[in-house]
Amino acid sequence: MAKTKQQKELELQALHDKFERSRGAVFASFAGLTVNDAQELREKLREENAEMVVAKKSLMGIMFEKSGLTKDQVLDMEGSVGVVFGYGDEIAPAKIVAEFAKAHDVVSFRGGVLDGEFIGVEKVIALSVLPSKQELLAKMVGSLKSPISGFVNVLGGNMRGLVQVLNQIKEQKTS
């Protein structure tokens, strides 16, 4: 049964709300993916505060226009296209889809949106190999902590040296 205009408008509004709420989105082809594999992907996405939506490209084009992007970018994508919205980490959708694509040949990137700008397949692939936000923050904290730790060790070394000198003086006086 064909959808009514009202149903299409509700679907478009839901799609647009998800797009506006997301911090990053990835477009990918999922044609040929089995239902079980699609469920597995959806579960992995849910764990990372992301979700996959499959909609008509014409609806995604209208969603793009509402968001200030060019709808031709979506309409020019080949084949059926799904969109993965990431609500937490901006690059999580790209990482999850790339990891999933390693085990499933039928999954391939078609583009993405980051910071309100459309990005091509090459940039999405580049994002997918970056460390996660948590990993980058941990590395930054380690880098910030390193000079302080070194300074504490240097100060501790002076104290250890002083204690050793005092112990040697004490041993000389007792012998």
Question: Would you give an account of this structure?
Answer:
The protein has 175 residues and is of the alpha+beta class. The chain folds into two domains: 5-130, Alpha-Beta Plaits (2-Layer Sandwich); 131-175. The chain is 61% helix and 15% strand. The protein has helices at 5-21, 35-47, 57-66, 72-75, 92-103, 121-128, 133-174, and strands at residues 24-29, 50-54, 82-86, 108-114, 117-119. A five-stranded antiparallel sheet has the order 2-3-1-4-5, with helices on both faces. A hairpin with a 2-residue loop joins strand 4 (108-114) and strand 5 (117-119).
Quick gist of this model?
The chain is an alpha+beta fold and 175 residues long. The protein is 61% helix and 15% strand.
CATH class of the largest domain: Alpha Beta
What is the domain total for the residues?
Answer: 2
Order of helices and strands: HEHEHHEHEEHH
Look at the helices and sheets and give the structural class. alpha+beta
> Based on the structure given, which CATH architecture of the largest domain is correct?
2-Layer Sandwich
* DSSP E strands, number: 5
Runs with pLDDT <50, length 5+?
none
CATH superfamily of the largest domain: Ribosomal protein L10, N-terminal RNA-binding domain
Distance from first to last alpha carbon = 103 Å
Approximate strand percentage: 5-15%
Using the coordinates shown, work out and report the CATH topology of the largest domain.
Answer: Alpha-Beta Plaits
The number of distinct helices, counting runs of at least 4 residues, comes to 7
Q: Which value, in Å, is the CA radius of gyration?
A: 27 Å
Give the overall pLDDT as a whole number: 85
Q: State the strand order across the main sheet.
A: 2-3-1-4-5
Helix content: 55-70%
Q: Summarize the biggest pleated sheet.
A: 5 strands, antiparallel
- Overall geometry comes to elongated
